[in-house]
Amino acid sequence: MDRLENEIKILLVDDEDDIRDVLNISLLDMGYSVHQAKNGNEALKLYKGVKTL
After folding, report:
1. Is 1 within 8 Å of 10 (Cβ atoms)?
2. pTM of the prediction?
3. Which residues contact 17 (CB under 8 A, 6 or more apart)?
4. Which end of the chain is more exposed for a tag (fewer CB within 10 A), N or C?
């Protein structure tokens, strides 16, 4: 698949490491910029730190 022209950022949240890893690899291969969080609290901290998500 071709790389996306504009960087699209995805916040991936899941408490299962294996699921996050598989999805992260797939999304990176499709050209997305991925930020990962293990839970909702971590996701909110990332979201506040990267306001362009």
Report:
1. no
2. 0.76
3. 38
4. N
Q: State phi, psi for 41 to the nearest 5 degrees.
A: -60, -45
How big is the chain, counted in residues? Answer: 53
pLDDT in tens, 38-49: 999 999 999 998
Which domain does 21 fall in, by range? Answer: 9-49
Tokens of 13: 């949240």
- How far, in Å, CA of 31 to CA of 26, rounded? 9
In a domain, 13, yes or no: yes
Which pLDDT tens digit goes with each residue over 7-22? 899 999 999 999 999 9
Extract the tokens encoding 21: 């890893």
- Which residue, among 15, 14, 16, 12, has the nearest Cα to 24 in the 3D structure? 12
Task: Show Cβ contacts of residue 39 under 8 Å, excluding neighbours closer than 6 positions.
Answer: 13, 15
